C-alpha cells in the first residue's frame, strides 16, 4: 500500500516547478502540493532574519494543513537560511 499523503514542494515563486516536474514524472502515482510564497516574494530582497522567521512558521502551517509525507524546499535562499530550523521544528523529512 502506498503512502497517500502528498509531497509538498515549497518555493518563494515558481522556480521550483522545474524540480516538481521531474519528481512528478518519477512518481506518477504520488500526490503533490506546490506552494509559492507569493506574499513574501522575492526572498532576495528580505533579510536573513526575515526569512529565518517566515519560512519555518509558514512550513509549519502548511504541514498542519496538508499533512505531507515530506517537504521539498525548492528555494535556494530559503533552504540555505532556514533549513536547519525547519528540520528542527517538523517531525517529517525535509
What does this structure look like?
A 3-stranded parallel sheet has the order 2-1-3, sandwiched between helices. The two termini are 22 Å apart. The protein contains 3 helices and 3 strands. Helices cover 46% and strands 15% of the residues. By secondary structure, it is of the alpha/beta class.
Using brief descriptors, characterize the structure shown.
single chain, 3-stranded parallel beta sheet
Helix content: 40-55%
Report the principal-axis shape. globular
Order of helices and strands: EHEHEH
Specify Rg, calculated over alpha carbons. 13 Å
Number of discrete helical segments = 3
* Total beta strands: 3
Task: Note the main sheet.
Answer: 3 strands, parallel
- What ranges have pLDDT less than 50 throughout 5 or more consecutive residues? none
| Averaged pLDDT | 94
Major β-sheet strand ordering? 2-1-3
Beta-strand content estimate: 5-15%
Distance between the termini: 22 Å
- Give the helix/strand class: alpha/beta
Brief rundown of the structure:
This protein has helices at about 15-25, 50-65, 75-90, and strands at about 5-10, 30-35, 70-75. It has about 90 residues and is of the alpha/beta class.
How is the topology of this model organized?
Blueprint (H helix, E strand, L loop, with lengths): L6 E5 L5 H10 L5 E5 L11 H19 L3 E4 L2 H14 L5
Parallel strand pairs: 1-2, 1-3
Helix pairs in contact: 2-3
